[in-house]
Amino acid sequence: MRFNGLNLNLLVVLDALLDEKKIIGAALRLSTSPSAISGMLAKLRVYFGDQLLVPTGRTMALTPLGQELQEPVRALLLRIQATVAHRPTLDIANEKRTFRITVSDYAVQLLIAPLMRRLQAVAPFISIELRPQIENVHQFLRNGETDLSIMPAEFIDPEQPHEHLFEDTFRCIVWNGNTAVGEELDLDTFLQSGHAVVRLGQPSVPSLAESHLDALGLTRRICITTHDFTSLIPMIVNTQMIAITQTRLALDMQERLPVRVLAPPVPLPALRMSMQWHRYQNNDLGHRWLREQLMEVARGLDLPG
Asked: Using CA atoms in the order 119, 124, 127, 132, what is the torsion angle rounded to 10 degrees?
């Protein structure tokens, strides 16, 4: 199909080239040959009157026009995809579909495990692909590379729809044999102790609790840094270190490990978790159904102690 003299199939190729910035990468993505991609790039260059991509060593760089086209071309393809995927009704028991969810290990434990039990019972042909939270979460959502992002409300993209899921608080956690910490954790002991902390993504950024402590100017002695919350708490067992984590996770770990959960020595802000999706998926019946299931799971969470 042509529009204003452009074969619309070439837009798929253009999108892959602008994203991959390599002819070979675009060819692999579209399951075709590099020579075919080169030929289509030549046609695109003639149509737009611009090189679009120029060689720079082993990769290619976008021209100014290529940069301008990148987001609107992807948005157009996403809109077309949402339009052709629209169905007037939803037979959830027979729906065959994969949803990609960007989520932290903390939210996996709270939300995804019970969500999968629901799916297995009523929607056995729906599958979930989990993706880690990294620095390009917003870009992946805009590009359609993820269907849902579950994240703290502070990180929500204001350009896309979202919905509140649940709230949590933060607690400190220490090994039962920690001789430096008594029944309560005072600020001096907190600052003098070694700390195990979480840094998320690449490049790594501190968790919300750690960011708040940094903003207060409270310097801690960091002994070890890890990339997720579930590996954080086991690290303090048999040590004098302190960790800060979400209350629900801390209380769950207290049932499994020889650790104590204590109030932090300074007030920490509440953690408000939300889910976000692309606006073109707003009225997608399958996507809406999945969001409703996550809301139901979130409503069933026990309040943190």
From this structure: 30
Could you write out the three-class secondary structure of 233-270?
HHHHCCCCCEEEEEHHHHHHHHHHCCEEEECCCCCCCC
pLDDT digits (tens, 9 = 90+) for 38-53: 888 888 888 888 888 8
Residue 2 binned pLDDT confidence (cut-offs 50, 70, 90): very low
Q: Which residues have C-beta within 8 Å of that of residue 194, sequence separation ≥ 6?
A: 221, 222, 223, 239, 240, 241, 242
CB atoms within 10 A of CB 221: 11
DSSP bridge pairs for 225: 197
Does the reported pTM lie above 0.85? no
Domains, the chain, in order of start with CATH, read 2-84 (1.10.10.10), 92-165+273-299 (3.40.190.10), 170-269 (3.40.190.10)
Residue 10: both structure tokens together: 């070439």
> 301 — phi, psi (to 5°)?
-70, 140
Tens of pLDDT, residue by residue over 232-244, are: 999 999 999 999 9
